[in-house]
Amino acid sequence: MNLDRFATQKNANEGVWVEPVLFGEKIGVEFLVIGKDSDEVQKYTKAMAKEIAALPKDERAEVDWKERSKQGTGLRIKGMRAVGGGDVTLGGEKIEATQAGYVKLFNEIPELLDFIYNYTEDRANFLSKEKKSSSKQ
Fold first, then answer.
1. How many CA atoms lie within 13 Å of 88's alpha carbon, on the beta-carbon side?
2. Signed CA dihedral, 11, 98, 80, 120: sign only
3. Cα dihedral: 31, 20, 38, 70 (round 10)
4. Fewest 10 Å CB contacts: which of 35, 80, 81, 92?
5. By the 8 A CB rule, do 77 and 116 touch?
6. Can you tell me the mean pLDDT for 17-25?
7. 73 in Cβ contact with 117 (< 8 Å)
């Protein structure tokens, strides 16, 4: 049994393109996102845990881990492009494919932050495509 399609680590590190669907509509913009198992996200998560561990015990108990993790959602985006080409704009302003651009989008479209975060948390979104084999297994 060939298990290649279940190998998600490479795609989690290299990223996959996704066009978010918000409120039932595709948004016309694709994002190159890395997964929660990527080396970069793991590094961020460990740094966040270390920071939280340094807090006084009573403050640690009040930390909302999911909300804290969402603060790093912009780090999970490695590229952005308009479907069909052209610029990505919001309110007539061109949005650059930078952390500042992603933060602006998240501030104006909070649902986008939730979509990207939830998508990158789901390992199934990083499954490898099955390769056609000429030999029978």
1. 19
2. positive
3. 110
4. 92
5. yes
6. 97
7. yes
Q: Is 76 exposed, middle or buried (0-12, 13-18, 19+ CB in 10 A)?
A: buried
- Rounded-to-integer distance, Cα 78 and Cα 66, Å: 21
For the record, the structure tokens of 12 come out as: 């989690």
Torsion angle in degrees (nearest 10) through CA of 54, 60, 66, 71:
-50
pTM greater than the 0.85 cutoff? no
pLDDT attached to residue 40: 94
43-61 pLDDT tens trace: 998 998 898 889 888 888 8
- Please give the residue that has the higher pLDDT: either 64 or 99: 99
